[in-house]
Write a structure and sequence with these properties.
alpha/beta; Rossmann fold; 4 domains; ten-stranded mixed β-sheet; 29 helices
């Protein structure tokens, strides 16, 4: 091959002046959640809209001059364009929720880091739920006016496209992303030069440019190593999402965390608060510490306190096997030159990522690093927070499990992005325009769903089911044609699915714990349901297995081969190449969303949250969000939350439970028709689901929770530490050093409790504790009585802590503390005494390894 020096240049669409606002609208993803804007772009050229994967930037560059001339003279189109542009300007300029709640307070910036962002199918830089959640987080941050910027990687190939061979085996292709024909722009400095940052890898520097995507009012910055400054090997670092080996993963995570912070600084953005969406970006904490040490002359301990106060970590993983772990040898290879910049030796650095800091054989965990260097940590549902506290309890030895500082903030979805156009019109008509909002106000608004006439709600939902069936037939035709099927086979695709039948959807990542094939345990029972002429049901499946997950691919193959049976094919369909477009059709058109993971392996799950806003119902295992969202009037539960040691037995039990729900409840309820041919009982369940779930499981509510529980307190802590030239920060670091030295000398010397005999509800008993504080002051500690009911295993349940007051100083370091403990319930109770470190700037955080029990 001839080596030719190619000089590049960029060509942009040449739109007439009257149509120039289309460029501005296309370059901001605000349009993706504005149905009127979507309709506007569809009007440009419906066929081209589909060919370009709904990418208006690319489409504008492909329109012919003849078509542009037509549009320039089309008064109807111009009026539509002006209306959409006016809505866009109003949105971008209005006062939002956060500005109101933070009025009069200091302004600050939050940076949100994620390895993937699922914003729209025209931007394939995501693989699944983690990315779609991140994308919805940005959209709601824009809706609420959160001062947030986001950071990720610009994948040249993104995640793979899926197709199936003749046997039903998943195949992968990796088409290249054309960033110049996407709503992205390269960031440049004041001299119009590309802003380039670098990170150090073994024996070399790797360079990256920065792309920006506008998500309403939120900018998303993506790092791209595919530039001439780098070797071919390093240009591939941002080639594929979740591709390559451990070495590629650590390179990507160094670029995301360390490179991401450097990119923000290069653009003049210095965020006070950083939010790590999963542990992939945890290296950012180290880079923030390093920069503070350099810029402010701080020690590692001092800079660590400041950075930790402003860091937030959201974990999505319910099992240790899902955590990124790197061997000590690999870490040394990549960070040997970085240790000295932090003033740390090899052992001290690696201890930051180990549960057992002293175990030199333990691998370096990104989640452990994030937990150690973030003041605020959360799981993505209440059940997942419980699971996470169990998983990471060893990091807080002596702290009762329920007090492990990992909170639960349940995920949500951006309802305006997932509600169908038909349903949005109906909701606005009967609920008013504020139905998109989350929180307590939205709960009142969603109660108006009862005002929607049953007939209107049902007809609206039926239209979406009809469109889903039409879409599924079209996709099936395309799949058959690609596979080389005969004309007769392709034509038969129009026979699949019934637009009036009970339609159940299952679409997600084909990880084995999600049990996509659970229904195939009883194939004859399933066939009977599918082929019932009076009351038929039908299933639509979609989803991808990881390219290296053979068992997940086997699941897909089994489903596809089952679907090809002659007596099944009309009622059981697998749609290839699951993406956000396929997801929208499914969640907007199915009657029921099926979710059957093994509890408690589904951290949250968000696909089922997208269904209620479109009138669909959930049939799910009580795992993730459904464990707290389920109610009998709003959907169906598979089992009662049991967890069996024998997984095969659990699959059998829960498979039978699905069939029982289908046969005894769902099918009869769906086909029981009253006046006007309406399934009144089913519609009542639809309304109950919408009323109870839609206002709660939205990212507007979720992001509001993050803002009030994490973002604002984190900035307050950060700001307090940096007052007076960082004097409080230095005092806190010194205090912690002194505390660490004195802590092992603290002793509880005596405990006295005034309990004369059986106590009565409503009474109190007095506890007095004498403690030797080893030279510390009473203000340096919290002496607490930890009390609650005691079960048969002598374990306190539902325990609470009461802080004792310092009442007198004895001799030396001895002090007396006292408190009264209330008797609130009957039965056997117990209490224990503990001592914790305390500092006003420490807040309520438990310091790992610093808790003393009497």
């Amino acid at each position: 091959m001839v080596n030719i020096n190619i000089r590049s240049y960029h060509v942009e669409p040449a739109l007439p002046e009257r149509l120039s606002t289309l460029n501005e609208l296309a370059s901001n993803l605000w349009w993706t959640w504005n149905s009127d804007a979507i309709t506007l772009f569809q009007r440009l050229d419906p066929e081209l809209w589909n060919i370009t994967d709904h990418n208006p930037v690319r489409m504008l560059g492909m329109l012919t001059q003849v078509r542009l001339d037509e549009l320039e003279q089309d008064d109807s189109f111009l009026a539509h364009m002006d209306r959409v542009y006016g809505d866009y300007l109003q949105y971008m300029g209005k006062t939002f929720w956060f500005e109101q709640v933070n009025e009069g307070q200091k302004t600050f910036t939050i940076s949100y880091f994620s390895l993937e962002f699922g914003l729209h199918e025209s931007l394939p830089i995501y693989s699944g739920g983690l990315g779609v959640l991140a994308g919805d987080h940005l959209k709601s941050s824009s809706d609420l006016g959160i001062p947030l910027v986001a950071v990720g990687l610009a994948y040249q190939e993104g995640y793979f496209r899926q197709y199936l061979n003749l046997e039903g085996w998943q195949q992968e292709t990796y088409p290249e992303n054309d960033f110049y024909n996407m709503p992205m722009e390269v960031m440049r400095d004041e001299r119009e030069e590309q802003i380039i940052i670098n990170v150090e890898l073994p024996g070399r520097k790797v360079f990256a440019r920065i792309w920006r995507i506008k998500v309403g009012r939120v900018p998303l910055y993506l790092l791209d190593t595919n530039i001439p400054n780098n070797s071919e090997e390093d240009r591939a670092i941002t080639s594929q999402l979740y591709g390559g080996n451990k070495e590629m993963r650590i390179q990507q995570e160094i670029l995301l965390g360390i490179g991401g912070i450097r990119a923000l600084w290069a653009m003049g953005i210095n965020p006070e608060v950083c939010h790590m969406n999963e542990g992939h970006s945890a290296f950012l904490a180290l880079e923030r510490i390093r920069l503070m040490m350099v810029d402010h002359g701080l020690s590692f301990a001092e800079a660590r306190e400041a950075v930790t106060a402003g860091n937030i970590f959201t974990t999505h993983t319910p099992v240790p096997a899902g955590i990124d772990m790197f061997s000590p040898e690999l870490m040394n290879s990549y960070f040997n030159s970085y240790y000295p910049q932090l003033g740390l030796d090899n052992a001290s650095f690696l201890a930051l990522g180990r549960q057992n800091e002293m175990d030199q054989r333990e691998s370096f965990s990104m989640a452990v690093l994030a937990l150690r260097l973030a003041a605020y940590c959360n799981g993505v549902s209440h059940l997942h927070a419980d699971t996470s506290r169990k998983m990471w309890q060893s990091m807080w030895p002596g702290v009762p499990e329920h007090e492990i500082p990992i909170k639960g903030i349940t995920n949500g979805v951006h309802v305006a992005s997932w509600a169908s156009n038909d349903m949005q019109g109906l909701l606005t008509r009967y609920l008013g325009p504020t139905w998109r909002e989350g929180g307590d106000k939205a709960k009142k608004v969603w109660h108006r769903v009862d005002n929607i006439p049953d007939s209107e709600l049902w007809r609206t939902h039926e239209r979406r089911r009809e469109r889903l069936v039409a879409f599924a037939r079209s996709r099936l035709r395309q799949q058959l044609m690609k596979r080389g099927a005969t004309r007769i086979e392709v034509a038969r695709a129009d026979e699949v699915l019934d637009p009036e039948a009970l339609t159940i959807g299952f679409a997600r990542r084909f990880a084995t714990y999600k049990r996509a094939t659970i229904l195939l345990q009883e194939p004859e029972r399933l066939k009977k349901l599918l082929n019932d002429r009076e009351r038929p049901i039908q299933f639509i499946f979609a989803g991808k297995a990881h390219p290296h997950d053979r068992e997940g691919k086997e699941f897909i193959k089994r489903l596809v081969q089952f679907a090809r049976q002659e007596d099944i094919r009309r009622h059981f369909v697998f749609i290839e190449d699951y993406d956000m477009n396929v997801a929208r059709y499914l969640v907007q058109g199915v009657d029921v969303w099926l979710n059957n993971p093994r509890r408690p392996l589904e951290a949250s799950g968000t696909s089922g949250m997208k269904v209620p806003v479109n009138g669909g119902l959930n049939l799910s295992v009580l795992d993730g969000w459904w464990a707290e969202g389920y109610s009998p009037e709003a959907g169906w539960a598979i089992g009662s939350g049991e967890i069996y040691e024998d997984q095969n037995y659990q699959d059998e039990v829960e498979g039978r439970a699905i069939y029982q729900a289908l046969e005894q409840e769902m099918v009869p309820l769906f086909y029981e028709r009253g006046t006007g041919g309406l399934p009144r009982g089913w519609i009542a369940k639809m309304k109950a689901s919408m009323r109870s779930l839609c206002p709660v499981y939205s990212t507007n509510r979720m992001v509001g929770d993050y803002a009030q529980s994490f973002y604002m307190p984190a900035f307050k802590s950060w700001d307090s530490l940096h007052a007076d030239g960082s004097a409080p920060l230095k005092k806190l670091a010194t205090w912690k050093q002194n505390m660490g030295s004195a802590w092992t000398g603290i002793r509880v010397q005596d405990v006295q409790a005034d309990i004369p005999g059986p106590l009565k509800v409503g009474k109190h008993f007095k506890v007095s504790v004498t403690a030797d504080l080893a030279g510390l002051t009473p203000d340096d500690v919290r002496v607490q009585v930890y009390w609650g009911p005691v079960d048969a295993q002598r374990t306190m349940i539902r325990a609470e802590a009461v802080t004792l007051e310092h009442v007198r100083h004895l001799e030396g370091s001895q002090h007396v503390f006292e408190a009264e403990v209330p008797c609130l319930t009957t039965g056997k109770h117990g209490y224990a005494i503990r001592i914790l470190p305390h500092h006003p700037l420490l807040g309520d955080r438990f310091e790992p390894g610093q808790i003393i029990w009497a």
